[in-house]
Fold this sequence. Notes:
Layout: H1 3-16, H2 21-36, H3 45-69, H4 80-103, H5 110-136
Helix pairs in contact: 1-2, 2-3, 2-5, 4-5
Amino acid sequence: VHEKAALLFLLPLSIVAFDNKVLARAHFLAQLAGGYALFPLIFTQKESFGVLALFVAYMCLVWILHNHIHKEQGRIELLFFERLYVLGFVFLHLGVLIHPHVLGGLLPFLPLMLTSFYCAMGVIWTFFLVYSHTLSLK
């Protein structure tokens, strides 16, 4: 996922996410996928821990705010496979961290390829959520 492409859908989705729970759920998943897709731009290990800590704090804040805003409609619930997708980012990040130690110089673009593919799956799912919600409006 290219960083400019991520901004094209994150900015408008950030505005309409306050409308209802479906769009808030889509916004959370889009922020997660789009934000993590930017991690390959950080090259050094010294920077990555600070950025990861800020990103996790930001995602927690997004989740708390969405649940607070939509408390009249009930808590925002992720589907089972969406929860697995969110959990998969932990394993993806661990794989990216241990890749240089396990494979050395072999397959240097594997972490970037896996990150791009995994984040693209989330972006595509988010588009599906938004479009299906929009088409179901009367």
